[in-house]
Specification:
There is one protein chain. This protein is an alpha/beta fold and 229 residues long. It has one domain: 3-Layer(aba) Sandwich (Rossmann fold), CATH 3.40.50.300. The protein contains 8 helices and 5 strands; from the N terminus they run E-H-E-H-H-E-H-H-E-H-H-E-H. Strands 2-3-1-4-5 form a 5-stranded parallel β-sheet, with helices on both faces. Helix 4 crosses helix 7. The chain is globular, with a radius of gyration of 18 Å.
Length: 229
């Protein structure tokens, strides 16, 4: 995959957020979405692993613990490809601001930790353009873990990385799994041009940084919805 292949072919703009579970990225992209909508702009939001076409197969495979790392990766790529072809690409062509809570970099990080070849992953997702802006919410591992574990009575099998055999204890497995994912994100920051946001800052301070950055890099008035009057 050409790491310099940005979304430059379409009138829309693609904005993605990445980070560990508990990094605060989902809160920030939701706040950004609401802010852009209140400004009357054309906005579309999509999140990782949410294709209705693939959801049942993914759920069944996880529940029965049938997924190998390769199968797991292919299913997630199929999910993404469905959303990319049906939602992301058409709306970029239609001139929307497309917001993605996780993008292909989530697969690059998680699937590489599960043992998939980075070259194979980059090739598999080669159909997807890279975002105009990718925000990486850099939150220290212990803080991110505290946020997730503090609100979860029980971790799911794959969420905790139990399929990798890191530990028999799901919480320790989750810590190891997330630590390895964090290392993958750190390695991707430079090559993929991530813009780093301090995940330890207050929600308000983070959102101000995000809004200022988006306003500087994108001509937002160009994305105003047409009103009928």
């Amino acid at each position: 995959m050409n790491v310099n292949q940005k979304n430059g072919c379409y009138p829309g703009r693609l904005i993605a957020v990445e980070g560990l579970d508990g990094s605060g990225k989902s809160t920030q992209i939701y706040l950004l979405k609401r802010w852009l909508e209140m400004k009357g702009l054309k906005v579309f939001f999509t999140e990782w692993n949410s294709s209705l076409l693939i959801k049942k197969a993914t759920s069944k495979g996880k529940k029965r613990q049938l997924l190998t790392p390769t199968t797991f990766s292919i299913i997630h790529c199929t999910d993404f490809a469905d959303r990319y072809e049906r939602q992301i690409l058409p709306l970029l062509k239609a001139g929307y601001l497309v917001l993605c809570d996780r993008y292909i970099y989530t697969a690059f990080a998680r699937d590489a930790v599960r043992g998939c070849s980075p070259e194979w992953l980059h090739s598999m997702y080669g159909f997807a353009c890279h975002p105009d802006i990718t925000l990486f919410f850099n939150t220290p591992l212990q803080i991110a873990l505290g946020r997730i574990l503090g609100g979860r009575p029980q971790l799911k099998y794959h969420e905790a990385g139990m399929d990798m055999g890191f530990s028999h204890d799901p919480y320790e497995s989750f810590r190891i799994f997330q630590g390895k994912i964090y290392d993958e994100y750190q390695a991707m920051k430079g090559p993929f041009g991530f813009i780093e946001i301090d995940g330890t800052a207050t929600i308000e301070d983070q959102q101000k940084i995000v809004r200022d950055l988006i306003s500087e890099r994108i001509d937002l008035p160009c994305f105003r919805s047409r009103t009928i009057g």
